[in-house]
Backbone:
């Protein structure tokens, strides 16, 4: 049995998409997605929800740097080798490795967090089954209001998407 994923409208210009996104925001919709053939910062600002990847990367970088520094300090303290009269805890010598592991840990965890938050790789998704969706990578914009949005029914959603849309169809899983 097919289940409704959402209502999707196809648009010819970014201006039409921006107008629809403003209508959706004003009406209180929160669960919608935009598919675009090219990036547009104005559209990105109108999308709901903000990412938490920046906090994950910051925490991972701090943990990686602290771990690298601690490992060097521990090795120098327990396996002390006095070279050239330097102190055992010579922090300037620890900076390059600490910096490199901070960047490496932040980068690896950042890529993993990106895949986790975006649920990639997504090999099958309901919008991919719509034959019109092939144009999303060529010359058309799509706005899909998901069925799990607490705000509105399918008819209300259809009326909001309809005025500037080339076509509005329901997408099923």
Residues:
């Amino acid at each position: 049995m097919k289940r409704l994923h959402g209502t999707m409208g196809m648009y010819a210009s970014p201006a039409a998409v921006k107008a629809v996104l403003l209508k959706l925001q004003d009406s209180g919709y929160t669960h919608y997605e935009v598919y675009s053939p090219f990036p547009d910062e104005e559209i990105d600002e109108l999308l709901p929800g903000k990412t938490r990847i920046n906090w994950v990367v910051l925490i991972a970088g701090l943990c990686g740097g602290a771990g690298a520094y601690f490992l060097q300090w521990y090795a120098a303290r327990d396996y002390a080798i006095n070279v050239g009269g330097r102190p055992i805890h010579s922090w300037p010598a620890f900076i390059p490795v600490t910096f490199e592991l901070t960047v490496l840990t932040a980068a690896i965890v950042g890529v993993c967090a990106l895949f986790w938050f975006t649920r990639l790789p997504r090999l099958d998704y309901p919008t991919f089954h719509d034959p019109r969706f092939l144009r999303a990578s060529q010359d058309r914009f799509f706005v899909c209001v998901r069925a799990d949005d607490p705000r509105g029914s399918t008819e209300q959603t259809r009326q909001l998407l309809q005025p500037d849309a080339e076509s509005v169809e329901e997408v099923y899983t």
